[in-house]
């Protein structure tokens, strides 16, 4: 626990039960918790972890796409991709700000990413091998992120919900740009269509795994749902995503290489095949194709940016002294 966390949670024991009751009432009536409200230590800890890991994912997620800015096939495509990658940086910043309101300073959260004690979404440990992969990332990865994140706009912790509203608006632009890249390719030469199909084949499984392990294997989900942080289970969100992307793939003239994928009249949903969870676990453990490269790049970028942080701190200090001398 950081010193600031201690201050925020320092409530005499007699009052604590009352505070807990008030918190439970707010959750029961689906109200929002603000940073100045009392909250249980476990709620604060869960949110700090979730929001900061979400921020880390946005920051690391810039890498596979930034790698394609100079190779995008036209000036227009470069400009669109650059705007998208900048959006992701912005998402990281909103989310670090939201996480900081829970009491842990940003430096500490960033350090957890750099020393490997914090995780980020495993999807970003896959490479973007071709231009079509940029389309597949936008359509499937940002698409899965939207399915996950739209319900988070109603998360009980208010700063998180507010950050998600803006993020989701930008994510829907990201998804459309990805779909449009694939549409152009799938309506181009046979080689371009093939490239689009191969990109989808690569990203289908990992994108479905973005919703996390199956419900039976996701012990923390229940508590997050009880706290109104999470509104739907991993499997519910995954199903919603599959139901959304199958007709979109048909509109592209492409398909998913899943022999079990078919409409189930009785359930009113698409059935789909078992995912490779051993691969998912291996990538989380650091054995994905790009884990080492992503972290090396992030550490290098952090070291390269040291002078900017120093200059910003010196500037803030100078202005702070000027302000206090005016007051005196
Ligand atoms: Fe994002
Ligand atoms: Fe995005």
Uncertain residue segments: none
Using the 3D structure, state the CATH architecture. Up-down Bundle
* Helical content class: 55-70%
CATH class type? Mainly Alpha
At the fourth CATH level, what is the homologous superfamily?
Ferritin, core subunit, four-helix bundle
Tell me the β content.
Answer: under 5%
Q: What is the averaged pLDDT score?
A: 93
What small molecules does the structure contain?
Answer: fe (ii) ion
Count of discrete structural domains: 1
Order of strands across the main sheet: 1-2
Number of strands: 2
Written as H for each helix and E for each strand, in order along the chain, the element string is HHHHHHHHHHHEEHHH
* Terminal-residue CA separation: 35 Å
Radius of gyration: 22 Å
Query: The CATH topology, please?
Result: Ferritin
Class derived from helix and strand content: mainly alpha
| Annotation field: number of helices | 14
Tell the overall outline. Answer: globular
Structural features:
single chain, 328 residues, mainly alpha, Ferritin, 14 helices
Task: Describe the protein in words.
With 328 residues, the chain is mostly helical. It has one domain (23-288): Ferritin, CATH 1.20.1260. It is built from 14 helices and two strands. It has helices at residues 3-9, 13-28, 41-60, 62-66, 75-100, 106-114, 131-149, 158-186, 190-209, 221-226, 234-252, 277-287, 291-304, 306-327, and strands spanning 262-264, 269-271. It has a two-stranded antiparallel sheet with strand order 1-2. The longest helix is centred in the middle third of the chain and has 29 residues, at 158-186. The chain is globular, with a radius of gyration of 22 Å. The relative contact order is 0.10. The structure holds fe (ii) ion (2 copies).
